[in-house]
Amino acid sequence: MDKTIAVIRGDGIGPEIVKETVGVLDAVAEKFGHRFTYKEAPMGGNAIDAFGVPLPDASLETCLSSDSVLLGAVGGPRWDSQPPANRPEKGLLKLRAAMGLYTNVRPARMFSELASACPLRADIANRGIDFVVVRELIGGLYFGEHTTVEENGEKKARDICEYSETEIRRVARVAFEMARKRRKRVTSVDKSNVLDTSRLWRAVVTEVAGEYPDVELLHMYVDNASMQMVKDPSQFDVIVTENLFGDILSDEASQITGSIGMIPSSSMGDGTRGLYEPIHGSAPDIAGQNKANPIGTILAAAMMLRYSFNMAAEAAAIENAVDQTLKAGFRCGDIMEQGCTLLGCTEMGAEICGRI
Ligand code: NAD
């Protein structure tokens, strides 16, 4: 297969982790007989320096005309004094909107070798943690009307939460499609005992489930879901939920698995094109020192292969290579343990490449 990938290296550790990830993608291309063409799309602080704006039109065009987008991270103290409309993260927000990315997917997977970084009790962690949170990204409370009024000398604030059937249906389909490529179980999280938006959510998700008879659907209230996630995370495969609940649950999910440097994420809209990135930022404190852990970005590339390019075996090859590298005792500084071998970003990339 021939695929074009827009590459946003970004700021801070972004260029270092993306370089290693591109190396891993090249190893996959060689092994499986594909051709990946990379198109550079400057975004973030470096784009402000070079072009005066965080997302130049040419970069946006490159992203929109590519099969998918790989992003390192953007931002850093150097650009903190920029006016709010011209900050590095504005580029990312503009890109998400232009690509119509209404779904965010964050896997929570614990590597058995990193079990000691898991804050849960060993008997719970040992049952395994391997699920994804599918979060609606551009609707609900965060995008409703926000008002603060003064009545009878007292301030009163209001935030409107709205969801349409279309907004719910499209994210539900992403979750069911994802479950089909995993263990075929969707847990839909809502608060339908209280909220109308949740009642609509539950009705629409149930209706969509009819299109996926091979996937099991369960419903769970959000308060229970937050407890179940720490009590027995092994019960989850794909969690689908609205924006606010997803924001909170996906952070809880990423915490129970260990290091911030290990976790990938994808944002998707209609069609197969997505934006793939690690969940962490540009880590300016370790930038340029060959100390960054590239695994979150490398696993984001595996998500790209699986979800945008339908290359399940290729994605698994990357994930297995990461597993094997950890099993061999290699670690970056953020996940270093006694008895293991400390590697820099470049060396970690090379070890993973060598195991593809
Ligand atoms: P951060 O995630 O960059 O760093 C937090 C801590 O985690 C730091 O100590 C850092 O060294 C460490 N860390 C992060 N990623 C690591 C990795 N791969 N390997 C080893 N250690 C790692 O968060 P921050 O310091 O709050 O933000 C720094 C900059 O990144 C800010 O400008 C922020 O706006 C930006 N940011 C960008 C994104 C994005 O591009 N999507 C996301 C979050 C933050």
Task: Describe the protein.
It is built from 12 helices and 14 strands. With 356 residues, the protein is an alpha/beta fold. A 10-stranded mixed sheet has the order 2-1-3-12-11-4-5-10-8-9, with helices on both faces. Helix 1 (14-32) links the parallel strand 1 (2-10) and strand 2 (35-40). It is globular. The two termini are 18 Å apart. The model has no long low-confidence stretch (mean pLDDT 95). Residues 13, 73-76, 89, 92, 260-261, 277, 280-286, 292-293, 296, 334 line the site of nicotinamide-adenine-dinucleotide. Nicotinamide-adenine-dinucleotide is lined by residues 13, 73-76, 89, 92, 260-261, 277, 280-286, 292-293, 296, 334.
Bound compounds: nicotinamide-adenine-dinucleotide
CATH topology (level 3) name of the largest domain: Isopropylmalate Dehydrogenase
In CATH, the homologous superfamily of the largest domain goes by the name Isopropylmalate Dehydrogenase
Taken as a percent bin, the fraction of beta residues is: 15-25%
Secondary structure: helix percent? 40-55%
Q: Tell me about the biggest sheet?
A: 10 strands, mixed
SSE sequence, one letter per element: EHEHHEHEHEEEHEHEHEHEEHHEEH
Total domain units: 2
Query: What is the number of helices?
Result: 12
* CA-based gyration radius: 21 Å
Question: What general form does the structure show?
Answer: globular
Low-pLDDT segments = none
Which class do the helix and strand fractions yield? alpha/beta
Major β-sheet strand ordering: 2-1-3-12-11-4-5-10-8-9
Q: If classified by CATH, what would the architecture of the largest domain be?
A: 3-Layer(aba) Sandwich
The number of E-state strands comes to: 14
Give the overall average pLDDT.
95
How far is the first residue's CA from the last residue's CA?
Answer: 18 Å
